[in-house]
Each structure stands twice: as structure tokens, then as C-alpha cells.
Amino acid sequence: MNLEKQAVYNRWINILAVVIPLVVALLLGIRQKIDLGEWTKALPHLNGGINSLTAVLLLVGRWYIKKGNIAVHRRVMTGAFLLGSAFLVSYVLYHVSNDSTSFGSVNPFVRGIYYFLLISHIALSVVVVWFVLRAVYFAFSGQIEAHRRVVKYAYPIWLYVSITGVVVYLMISPYYS
Questions:
Q1: Cα Rg of the chain, angstroms
Q2: InterPro entries, from UniProt (predicted)?
Q3: How far is CA 130 from CA 18, 20, 85, 126, 150, in A?
Q4: Which one of 9, 30, 110, 173 has the largest count of C-beta atoms within 10 Å of its C-beta?
Q5: Distance from C-alpha of 114 to C-alpha of 101, rounded to nearest angstrom
């Protein structure tokens, strides 16, 4: 791939890695909720499932690449990427149409764990966008060494974000109305 084309892709990755979290933050900050219907109340449960399946696919994808099965690895990781994209859409739809749910535990230890996981999950979900977009770009453009270098960081962050998303969901799910 020529350097000019590569620069264009890198620029788009950098733009998306900034714009996606900003747009999500702006949409979450909207006080006036949009009535999309009662079906949106089920989205947190769907999101918990999506995060669970994403974590499983990440582990399976790693297993396949360690076994040298590049074709299955690519399909599995593409599935994880598509699930992450679906999660993002579902998450935004829920939050533009429903008020946030407060964590109801009064136990200070449990609250500390919950907020540590939530804050680290949110912060790393912003960071991981850039890494995942680069990993996908490098993989699909055949830049395997660059893909391996970025995956050293992308994979553990993405796995952490997926798993903590599930844990945070399980901790707050009793408080959904």
C-alpha cells in the first residue's frame, strides 16, 4: 500500500478515535430524552450479552491465532469488532432514550469496587477505540507485523473493557426499573 493512501487511513482512524467517544459523550449528556419506546428498556440486558459474547470471541480469537489458524482467527475477530459496533449503537440508543440508572448498594466496599470498575471501564473504552481501529486496519491491509505490535496493547485493553462491562452490568442490573 502506498504511503499516501496509508496516511489517509491513519488520519481517518485518528479522527474516528476522537469523534466516536466525543459523540457518545455528547449524546449521553442530553438531558431531554427521546421517546423510542419501551423496547429500549431491554437494551442494557442486550448490552450485557453483547459484552459477554465479545469477551468470549476475543478469547477464542486468541486461541485460534495461537494455533496458527489465521482464517478462523480473522472471522472470529471480525465478529468481535462487529459486536463492539453493535454494542456502541445499542448503548447510545439506550442512553438517549432512558435516564441513567443509579447504583443502589449502600455497602461502601461494594460501591468502591463498582465505581472503580465503572470508571476504569469507561476510561479504557475511550482509549481502546484507537487501538482496535488500528489493529483492524493493519490486519485487513496485510500489515501483519504492525498488527501484532498494536494488538499487544489492543487485546488486553479490549478484553478488560468487555469483561468489566459484563461485571458492571451484573452489579447494576438489580437496580434497573
A1: 18
A2: DUF420
A3: 8, 10, 13, 8, 10
A4: 9
A5: 13
Strands (DSSP E) contained in the chain are none
Query: Cα separation of 134 and 154, whole Å?
Result: 9
Count of helices and strands (H, E) across the chain: 5, 0
The three grid cell numbers given for residue 59, joined into one nine-digit string? 478469547
What is the DSSP-derived secondary structure letter of residue 41? G
- CA–CA distance, 103 with 62 (Å, rounded to integer): 34
**Closest of 54, 25, 45 to residue 101, by C-alpha:** 45
> The whole model's pTM is what?
0.91
* Residue 84 grid coordinates: 463492539
Q: Name the amino acid, one letter, at 96.
A: V
Per-residue pLDDT tens digits of the chain, which is 177 residues long:
678 888 999 999 999 999 999 988 888 888 889 999 999 999 999 999 999 999 999 999 999 999 999 999 999 999 999 999 999 999 999 999 998 899 999 999 999 999 999 999 999 999 999 999 999 999 999 999 999 999 999 999 999 999 999 999 999 998 887
Cell numbers standing for residue 74: 480473522
CA distance 124 to 163: 12
